[in-house]
């Protein structure tokens, strides 16, 4: 596991050269000779903490591989290429434990964990005030738990690492059971609630604050409540509690202009009025300007755009299942499934904006991330400054509505209120009282698809609901037979590789295989049960 066996200088100095989060996370790194005395000043501690955050913005995590290839294909979104292009790829469910994208994501998350372990061990020796030590330690502790959660959610059972790895001899560690790992993650996060900042919500969402912790806790509890842990009522009640704590704080609202929310996300701006975006993976610069951003959001995940200096391949598009969920007057539809694309003629050097026809539904690629919305300075063909949302207030409201319905086996007044806040922003009619448990649950499932598709959440929703295989094999399987899919194919006689994706999908694809490179180094670790 070469990427997780790192020195302090690599964790703090080298990795920070590609970190782009705001405020202290933009601190310029410099070399140092004595790791034992490095953690003495506030400046150095900020640099070290930025190294812990930087795992979020790596190409293996939310910069590309985890957010797009690993988490981007489900019942609502698909990889818009022929079956041959997804062969051996995780985006086509044709991967093995040797897959490079899976290993890169795994290694980057564990690098973040190792950096957090180093930071938490060294911070007490600093000259910081006790208040700052608690705050910074709370952020590192939460990030360590968050990275572990993503690994547990993605790979099922993984090693929980609470000590830094300094050499290969200390790398071997067996996996913690799924249930025990979730208990540990939850306790770690709950410990952080009152440690982190709870004041500056009108500033950058790139660093962890109290509502970040509470909102992610709601997500973890929802996962723990469902498949495969099946924690049930108690976990749903805790999910509702933490989501409601975010709501009761009054620090976040829904931006009434859904498109504006995404323009700011792509434009490297933060909305200090509504604060809907609670936490983001923040990327900055274009590489050409000296900032080593690792983000390809907008390039691999974005609207099809052949602008020579700002290319978007349009790899991900919405399915007919997603299209049919939207009403024609829902503003989210054309933001999520962009109704146009940009075509470039090399001979004439002319760029043309072309609107898709009414029959070209599945050609409409992800519109939440558009290179035309990037800042003027951004002119790199592949690398972008576009941010990726890790937690939005609309997600918190929908989690609260779901948890209330599950815990009470029927929707409460609070559940209706939360759902209707999200629907009102989308200009949709209110849900009225009288829905039973099953009907309201379906409304929540559909609303999460309308609101959150392309945000690396849907796949894990399907898994925890216990319907992943059914949705892919049956519902998506029927959708691809629809004549509207054939009429709107990316290329003639091609369904975008979806039929191959469906045929390959099996129970094991709910989780990722432990990388074979990891198994070769960690002699105590075994392949998870889904891939044995």
Helix content estimate: 40-55%
Number of β-strand runs: 6
Strand order within the widest beta sheet: 1-3
Q: In angstroms, what is the radius of gyration? A: 22 Å
Question: How would you describe this structure in keywords?
Answer:
44% helix; globular; 532 residues; 21 helices; mainly alpha; two-stranded antiparallel sheet; disordered N terminus; Serine Threonine Protein Phosphatase 5, Tetratricopeptide repeat
What is the structure about, briefly put?
With 532 residues, the chain is mainly α. The chain contains 21 helices and six strands. The strands form three sheets. A two-stranded antiparallel ribbon has the order 1-3.
Structure in words:
There is one protein chain. Helix content is 44%, strand content 5%. The protein is mainly α. It has a domain at 2-196 and 511-521: Alpha Horseshoe (Serine Threonine Protein Phosphatase 5, Tetratricopeptide repeat). The strands form three sheets. Strands 1-3 form a two-stranded antiparallel ribbon. The chain has a two-stranded antiparallel sheet with strand order 2-6. It has a two-stranded antiparallel ribbon with strand order 4-5. The longest helix has 26 residues, at 130-155. The protein is globular, with a radius of gyration of 22 Å. The chain starts with 7 loop residues before the first helix and ends in an 11-residue tail after the last helix.
């Amino acid at each position: 596991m070469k990427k997780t066996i790192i020195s302090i200088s690599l964790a703090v100095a080298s990795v920070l050269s590609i970190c782009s989060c705001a405020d202290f996370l933009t601190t310029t790194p410099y070399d140092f000779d004595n790791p034992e005395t490095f953690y003495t000043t506030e400046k150095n501690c900020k640099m070290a903490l930025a190294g812990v955050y930087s795992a979020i913005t790596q190409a293996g995590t939310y910069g590309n591989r985890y957010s797009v290839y690993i988490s981007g294909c489900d019942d609502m979104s698909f990889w818009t290429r022929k079956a041959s292009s997804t062969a051996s790829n995780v985006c086509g469910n044709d991967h093995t434990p040797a897959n490079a994208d899976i290993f890169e994501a795994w290694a980057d998350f564990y690098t973040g964990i190792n950096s957090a372990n180093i930071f938490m061990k060294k911070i007490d020796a600093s000259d910081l005030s006790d208040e700052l030590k608690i705050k910074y330690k709370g952020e590192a502790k939460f990030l360590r738990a968050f990275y572990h959660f993503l690994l547990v959610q993605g790979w099922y059972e993984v090693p929980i690492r609470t000590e830094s790895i300094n050499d290969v001899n200390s790398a071997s560690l067996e996996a913690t059971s799924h249930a025990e790992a979730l208990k540990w993650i939850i306790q770690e996060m709950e410990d952080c609630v009152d440690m982190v900042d709870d004041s500056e919500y009108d500033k950058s969402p790139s660093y962890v604050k109290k509502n970040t912790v509470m909102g992610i806790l709601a997500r973890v509890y929802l996962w723990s409540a469902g498949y495969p842990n099946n924690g049930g009522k108690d976990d749903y009640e805790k999910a509702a509690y933490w989501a409601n704590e975010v709501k009761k704080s009054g620090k976040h609202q829904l931006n009434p202009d859904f498109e504006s929310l995404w323009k700011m996300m792509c434009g490297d701006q933060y909305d200090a009025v509504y604060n809907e975006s609670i936490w983001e993976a923040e990327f900055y610069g274009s590489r050409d300007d000296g900032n080593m951003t690792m983000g390809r959001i907008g390039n691999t995940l974005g609207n099809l755009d052949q602008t020579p200096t700002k290319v978007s391949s349009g790899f991900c598009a919405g399915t007919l299942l997603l299209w049919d969920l939207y009403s024609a007057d829902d503003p989210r539809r054309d933001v999520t499934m962009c109704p146009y694309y940009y075509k470039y003629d090399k001979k004439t050097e002319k760029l043309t904006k072309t609107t898709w026809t009414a029959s070209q539904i599945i050609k409409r690629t992800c519109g939440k991330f558009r290179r035309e919305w990037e800042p003027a300075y951004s002119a790199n063909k592949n690398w972008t400054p576009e941010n990726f949302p890790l937690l939005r207030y609309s997600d918190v409201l929908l989690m609260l509505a779901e948890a209330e319905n599950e815990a009470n086996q029927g929707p409460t007044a609070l559940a209706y209120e939360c759902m209707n806040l999200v629907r009102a922003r989308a200009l949709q009619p209110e849900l009225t009282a009288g829905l039973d448990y099953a009907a309201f649950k379906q409304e929540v499932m559909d609303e999460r698809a309308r609101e959150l598709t392309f945000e690396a959440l849907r796949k894990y929703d399907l898994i925890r609901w216990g319907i992943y295989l059914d949705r892919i094999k049956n519902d998506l399987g029927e959708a691809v037979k629809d004549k509207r899919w054939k009429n709107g194919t990316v290329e003639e006689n091609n369904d975008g590789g979806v039929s191959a994706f469906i045929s390959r999908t099996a129970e094991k694809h709910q989780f990722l295989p432990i990388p074979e490179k990891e198994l070769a180094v960690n002699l105590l670790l075994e392949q998870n049960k889904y891939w044995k």
